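Researcher: Here's a chain I'd like modeled. Treat it as a single chain, no partners, no ligands.
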Amino acid sequence: MQRREFITLLGGAAAAWPLAARSQQAGMPVVGFLNARSPADAGHLAAAFRRGLAENGYVDSQTVTIEYRWALGQDDRLPVMAAELVGQPVAVLAATGGENSALAAKAATSTIPIVFAIGSDPVGLGLVASYNRPGGNVTGINILTNTLEAKRLGLLHELVPKAATVGVLLNPNWAPSANQLRDMQDAARVVGLQIDVFRASNDQEIDAAFEAVTQKSIAALAVTGNPFYDTRREKLVALAARYAVPVVYQFREFAVAGALMSYGIDLPDAYRQVGLYVGRILNGAKPADLPVLQPTKFEFVINLKTAKALGIKFSDNLMSLADEVIE
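Model: Modeled as a single isolated chain. Structure tokens:
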């Protein structure tokens, strides 16, 4: 763990209770922001969350106090952090950065309103009763991350249509990983493609996976979505460049960092929507009456600079599908 992240983690926890107490005494609501990622790689998402809050009249440190808890990609910290926020207590808890954050929040309270941002079905996870009428104290947005794995595999197949096998990097410690793998296997069968699965849940295993991809001459790699890989964005992009492996990722931020391509939702806008819902709840709305949202905007981003470095030429069809081309 980097020293700055360690200080952020401990400092936030140590200062939480006095700050919350002062805010509540002044009549200022306190909002908890629980996230499985890190402030270093997800600070822009926290900023988008604050923009959503501000649209409902809640400006950080002026009309609302936000208490942050970052798990730094280590999901086993989330239950303790959720309990800390609930114990203050906060007025609303934004549980972001994936399913484990939302589940930790739900386990910590059945009364404090919770707004989640997750990548799979919240009904199947037991977070809500239905999309239109969530019931209880929980609502949020399904950002569809895990359901888009098959689409990303299809884009990878079109990039290297002559390849009989492509690789999949999977985090076995991520709860939805079994569903991710099943969806990709189903999609691969449809197009007659074989997939070779490389499992990695820590930095050493990520290094080993890329070495194995090179040793086995895998033509291209799909990195599945999960918060731990998001916190290792720079590392993953650097390894892909070092080993000259074409890789597809889930969010635009990977392509901006130098990845070859990404396909997914507009993630900052999803966090803005979480902020909007938190603001509505602070203004009196009940989570049970706020339907679970789903994104309607998807982004296919191509990095031509990286393509040139890898010696890859995108087909006219792929270029026509791109929503953004980074040159």
